[in-house]
Amino acid sequence: MICGTGIDIIEIDRIRRAVERHPTFLSKHFTEVENLYFMSKKNNPQSIAGYFAAKEAVSKALGTGFRFFRFTDIEIEKDSFNKPSINLYGNAKKIAQEKNIDNIFLSISHCKEYAIANAIAITERLG
């Protein structure tokens, strides 16, 4: 059963500027795993913006936004088919457990100017 949804869209240029202006932007908002992925993509702003939008979408699917946890409590990874998956840590993981969230499905896309992500939280339990 769907127990939460979230969507986010962001201007890629906004993320590009943030990375250029703030040397700690990547380390503050992304995990080591995510930053290694970005380095493999030569810090492509589209990839970074997509992951940023994904984290925002997941925070909305959890029903809290980022009030109770950090950006790095949500980690995005891609499998060998380029399908994104989510690892939760810290308070984000605790919130998901409290809400009986068993899985969060994620989709990320972008065009030249925008990145968008959609997250759907699922529970197997009724009630």
Automatic annotation (TrEMBL):
<dbReference type="InterPro" id="IPR002582">
    <property type="entry name" value="ACPS"/>
</dbReference>
<dbReference type="Pfam" id="PF01648">
    <property type="entry name" value="ACPS"/>
</dbReference>
<keyword id="KW-0460">Magnesium</keyword>
<dbReference type="GO" id="GO:0006633">
    <property type="term" value="P:fatty acid biosynthetic process"/>
</dbReference>
<feature type="binding site">
    <location>
        <position position="8"/>
    </location>
    <ligand>
        <name>Mg(2+)</name>
    </ligand>
</feature>
<dbReference type="InterPro" id="IPR008278">
    <property type="entry name" value="4-PPantetheinyl_Trfase_dom"/>
</dbReference>
<keyword id="KW-0275">Fatty acid biosynthesis</keyword>
<dbReference type="GO" id="GO:0005737">
    <property type="term" value="C:cytoplasm"/>
</dbReference>
<keyword id="KW-0479">Metal-binding</keyword>
<comment type="function">
    <text>Transfers the 4'-phosphopantetheine moiety from coenzyme A to a Ser of acyl-carrier-protein.</text>
</comment>
<dbReference type="InterPro" id="IPR037143">
    <property type="entry name" value="4-PPantetheinyl_Trfase_dom_sf"/>
</dbReference>
<keyword id="KW-0443">Lipid metabolism</keyword>
<feature type="binding site">
    <location>
        <position position="56"/>
    </location>
    <ligand>
        <name>Mg(2+)</name>
    </ligand>
</feature>
<keyword id="KW-0808">Transferase</keyword>
<feature type="domain" description="4'-phosphopantetheinyl transferase">
    <location>
        <begin position="5"/>
        <end position="117"/>
    </location>
</feature>
<keyword id="KW-0444">Lipid biosynthesis</keyword>
<keyword id="KW-0963">Cytoplasm</keyword>
<protein>
    <recommendedName>
        <fullName>Holo-[acyl-carrier-protein] synthase</fullName>
        <ecNumber>2.7.8.7</ecNumber>
    </recommendedName>
</protein>
<dbReference type="InterPro" id="IPR004568">
    <property type="entry name" value="Ppantetheine-prot_Trfase_dom"/>
</dbReference>
<dbReference type="GO" id="GO:0000287">
    <property type="term" value="F:magnesium ion binding"/>
</dbReference>
<comment type="similarity">
    <text>Belongs to the P-Pant transferase superfamily. AcpS family.</text>
</comment>
<dbReference type="GO" id="GO:0008897">
    <property type="term" value="F:holo-[acyl-carrier-protein] synthase activity"/>
</dbReference>
<keyword id="KW-0276">Fatty acid metabolism</keyword>
